[in-house]
Amino acid sequence: MTNFHQARDAADTLIDQLQAFTANPRYLPRFFDTFFGLRTALGSAHERFVGSHGTEDGDRPLFATVFDRCGQATKMGVVLVPDDAAVSRYATTVQRAIAAMDGPGVTSARPALRGALRLRAPSTRGALAGTRSSPVAEPYYTSLVKLFPVEAVTLYPLAIGIAAGHAVLRLILIAVIILFIMALRWFATQDEEGGGADILAIVVSVVSFVLYAAALGGFGYLPGGPEQTGQFFAFITIMWVALIPFTVRRARR
After folding, report:
1. Tens digit of pLDDT for each residue in 3-16?
2. Which residues contact 221 (CB under 8 A, 6 or more apart)?
3. pLDDT tens digits, 232-248
4. Mean pLDDT of 63-86
């Protein structure tokens, strides 16, 4: 659990970063009002937070929330470039840190689906201190699970049962499942801080499902019949699913 001291130190680091931005000529005068307003609001929230909690409070989930929100904002500020989109995302994370210090209940404001299936870029430890260390890649099996559309694999047997041997209806239902994958992962692969969807991950998930469906005869059979079709596409599917996370993870670096 995160304690009060850690949460307060994280907030102090974020305040110092905002203070530095307000004095940085790169951001003046275009973003001065944004940073100055955030700095003032953050300072007020910090005073209320420190005034309403003490070291005797011990560990609380609220402290972990404050630590996390301030850490996210500080990390984004480390790599901030002076353009409208970057400043807007940074302002959003700072406002979440302010909301966390003003009280619990705000942590559920972010949709639970957003970011759930997004492949994480290598993280940088020590962001609160403003230092960089070796990037830590997301575990291979985590990437594998996120890239393979389990939701579609669950729906496919139902679609086959509904089609009941009708090829056209089967293809229509497969197309519906593909649209479902794209719609679900369009939201689930969006950046939690307001970024766009991960198009590459969506494409990989769709291809994975298409190969899976082909292995089960969803698009018809090869000249060798169902057995050859299943074995051929099963081999391709296994190789694809096993190797594609390495390619996607490398593209994220």
Report:
1. 888 888 888 888 88
2. 228, 229
3. 988 998 888 878 877 77
4. 80
Total-model pTM: 0.50
Instruction: State how far the Cα of 211 lies from the Cα of 93, in Å rounded to an integer.
Output: 39
DSSP string for residues in the chain = ---HHHHHHHHHHHHHHHHHHHT-GGGTTTTHHHHHHHHHHHHHHHHHHHHH--GGG---HHHHHHHHHHHHHHHHHHT--SSHHHHHHHHHHHHHHHHHHH-TT-TT-S-SSTTTTPPPPPB-TTGGGT-----BPPPHHHHHHHHS-HHHHHHHHHHHHHHTT-HHHHHHHHHHHHHHHHHHHHHHTS-TTS----HHHHHHHHHHHHHHHHHTTBTB--TT-HHHHHHHHHHHHHHHHHHHHHHHHHHH-
